[in-house]
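User: Predict structure, ligand N-carbamoyl-L-aspartate.
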Amino acid sequence: MLKERHLIDPMDLTIEETENLLELAENIYLNPEKYSKLCEGKILATLFYEPSTRTRLSFEAAMMRLGGKVIGFSEASFSSVSKGESIADTIRTISCYADVAVIRHPKEGAPKIASMYSSIPVVNAGDGGHQHPTQTLTDLMTIKSLKGSLSNLTVGFCGDLKFGRTVHSLIKSLSRYENNKMILISPEELKIPNYIRTEILEKNNIEYDERENLEEVIALLDILYMTRVQKERFFNEEDYIRLKDSYILDEEKIKKASKNMNILHPLPRVNEISYEIDKDPRACYFKQAEYGMYVRMALILKLLGVM
Ligand code: NCD
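Assistant: Predicted complex:
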């Protein structure tokens, strides 16, 4: 039962709970009317201490499409945080006003701290360069709909694997399914953090390969998961400028890929996928963004114990 639990890390969900959520999301996607009043009288709070388009708005739209209401802030400067309030005090207060809270924060671990002081479910909507479990649910729903399964896949992660929290969470989740192979493509400075390598990939005997060149491996991939270089996590602008255009997927580069390879991206994109790729049938990132709302509807229903 997910009722009254927190979702901080993708591993907070068992495989079975994850699959139940994906199945519910799929049912909502096919028949949204059936679910449109289930959260009447309920309130979702969105506490966003960092910018967001898809995550915040898809959560808000999700709650509204379930018949519930939404409160919150999209910039910390509009709340008492700017007066120096701690996240513990903020969440204690929000717990009195809302039924579920969604938190994005630049500090790794902040939603976890909030959950320790909260009497309502807390969802991590991205904590620094750490984890982003609801993007992972979105990614899993997309992969499952495209490939019919979450096993036996060769997945290429390309770009900023060091700071990309969506990458960390998706690697964790995909490592639980059978026979997945990961190809990790990044510049030397943006390789995955060591804890992902040792505690997830090596501990679970996942086959993986770390590469710098996308073109050398693109033909092997079932899924190519592109990511943005996370400008906001860099200590100096020079490094960002040097690394930001390390990978630009264009028509030329994609020629070597299989016609069955799908391109995912959590978005926002900057330069890493050229606009000419959007019309390629393998480009699935806008479908992925659409699914994000349905998985969040499923998650809200489960956390509130409505379903
Ligand atoms: C991602 C994030 O915030 O981590 N975006 C999202 O939630 N869809 C990816 C990113 O910002 O690059």
